Amino acid sequence: MADTLICVAVKPKYQRLSRKIHWGMLRVGKFWAMPKLLRFMTAHALACTIFVIVSVVPNDSFAIEGHPVSQAEWWSSGAGPFASLLGLLGLVSGAALLMKSKRARLLYLGFLTVALVAPYPFLGNPLLSLAGALMVAATAWYLFKVSATALYFEREPIKSLIH
């Protein structure tokens, strides 16, 4: 009888865990249900989270223009904050694509714009900025005009675990 009472007291906790695992499996299933290029874009955005980790965790492997720099120089040069911003934007846009958020496509385009267009005028190379803008435009066409991708985002979005 005591064992039964313990199981009954613990059971709701396991039900919540089971529900979270179920939602996680749905997200993984939705990832494989994406069109292939959209799946690549989502994985790309989520993989860019490594930029935050590399910038925050102390190490001596940073280089700017081929010259080794310390972590303090990495952050004071602006490379650390920019890499961290890209990592955070990648995480947010990748999670939004995975959850089929209404603004997921715009978030991903913003992420690409920050990565491929914004830095180059400051680095004195506006031609690369133009090439980045063309890549962002091609991505926008794919996300909004290709029928398979548009159909994917028209389906019911995945609800968040946070109620």
Structural class: mainly alpha
Supply the number of structural domains.
2
- Mean of the pLDDT scores? 80
**Total beta strands:** 2
By DSSP (H or I, 4+ residues per run), the number of helices equals: 9
Q: Give the termini distance in whole angstroms.
A: 35 Å
- Helix-residue proportion: over 70%
Give a short account of the largest sheet: 2 strands, antiparallel
Beta-strand portion reads under 5%
* Helix-strand string: HHHEEHHHHHH
Structure description:
By secondary structure, this protein is mostly helical. The protein folds into two domains: 1-33; 34-154, no CATH class. Helices cover 75% and strands 4% of the residues. It contains nine helices and two strands; from the N terminus they run αααββαααααα. It has helices spanning 2-33, 36-47, 50-56, 71-76, 79-98, 104-116, 119-122, 126-145, 147-154, and strands spanning 62-64, 67-69. The protein has a two-stranded antiparallel ribbon with strand order 1-2. Helix 2 (36-47) packs antiparallel against helix 5, helix 5 runs antiparallel to helix 6 and helix 6 (104-116) runs antiparallel to helix 8 (126-145). The chain is globular and about 50 Å long. The protein starts with a helix and ends in a 9-residue tail after the last helix. The relative contact order is 0.11. Mean pLDDT is 80; it is low at 1-11 and 20-26.
Keywords:
two-stranded antiparallel sheet; 2 domains; globular; 163 residues; 75% helix
